[in-house]
Every structure is written in structure tokens, then in C-alpha cells.
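Why run this: before we spend reagent on co-expression, it is cheaper to look at a predicted model of the complex and decide which construct boundaries make sense. The entries below are exactly what would go into the expression plan.
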Amino acid sequence: DAGVTQSPTHLIKTRGQQVTLRCSPKSGHDTVSWYQQALGQGPQFIFQYYEEEERQRGNFPDRFSGHQFPNYSSELNVNALLLGDSALYLCASSIGQGGIYEQYFGPGTRLTVT
Amino acid sequence: GENVEQHPSTLSVQEGDSAVIKCTYSDSASNYFPWYKQELGKRPQLIIDIRSNVGEKKDQRIAVTLNKTAKHFSLHITETQPEDSAVYFCAAGVRTGNTPLVFGKGTRLSVIA
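The model came back. C-alpha cells follow.
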């Protein structure tokens, strides 16, 4: 049973560039949530996708956008990168609309913006 | 929106002792409270969770208690072992509705052999 996977594992970008991160949910899960984890902090909710739609959104600017595909995998896009966007980006999968029960995290993508 | 406070930020215990981490939440509508363990460089792993219709839940050396009236919940680890050393996060959320899971800032637990 495959767990949550993310790619790439590490990424280095320059200010102003754009980045796309990818997530495949745990087998049987249909909901994907994205989090940003700054060093020494807890994960902060970015948004959640279910049935290919953004269902919930945290306090992040429109530079952060996403997509969910029919196979439930998801992408996180960040435009016009800022130094402050440097963080570990985690996706978590769960079951059901608005599902927050039993969220399982992927290994994360470490984004460094220089 | 929901706000989760977690204490202490760091905790050191001797191997075999117990460790307790406490969290408070602000939204009385929250009804789901998971705990995650994150080892250095690894993903957060769900170790135990509790729903608001239960006051206590136990899984081997780990237990979580919930006081809905006071809006606080705690993680208890007994007979700590060096492999329990990690950062622990509490979180709170509402099962249905349009509110996300909100995490505390974490507790770095060090178990000294």
C-alpha cells in the first residue's frame, strides 16, 4: 500500500521565479491538503482539494495556487517567489469531503529561495 | 479562527520517566484533536488522535486526554525511550465545515539515556 509521495524532494529557486510541487495521495484517499512548514514551526494550512476543487483555503496570498487531477494527485504552484517562501512544503491526504480525520503526510519538498 | 497554543516548547526527560505535553484551543466547535511526531528531516506521523465525544484514549505507552470545558488536551508518554525523541505537534479542527486543521508550534522532546 503506497503512502503519500511528493516530488521533488529538494528545490532551489531564485526570487521572482515560479515553482510547481507535486503530491500523490495514499491509496484510497481522495482529499489532498497542502501545508507550509517554516523552520521550527508547525505546519500552516495553505489549501485543500477535493473532487478537483479548492474546498478550503488558509491565509496565503493568491501567488499560491493549486490543482487536483482526476486520479486525486495534486500540484501546488507558487508564483513570484519571495525569500520568505523558503520552507518545507508538505501535502497530506485523507478521505472524504473536507476530511481532516487521519491526515497522512508525505515526506515534503524542501524549497529554498535565494 | 482556531488558535492552538502548545507547551512546553522544549522538554527533556530521563529514559523511563513520563512526558506530558499540553495544548489549548480557542474554537469550541473543534471536535478532532490529532497528535503528530516529527523526527529530524522526516514527515510528521500521526501517532494518536481523539474526537470530542471521548475524554481519553490510550495506545500502549501513549495516551491523550481531552477537557472540552476547559478547551485543552494533553499527550502523555509513559516509560519514555530514546526513540521517543522528536518534535511533537498537536492540532485541532472541525470534522465537517470549512475550517482547516490548525497546528501548535511543537514541542521538542529529548529523552536522555
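Chain B touches chain A through 26 residues (CB under 8 Å). Chain B has a mean pLDDT of 93. Bring this page to Monday's planning discussion.
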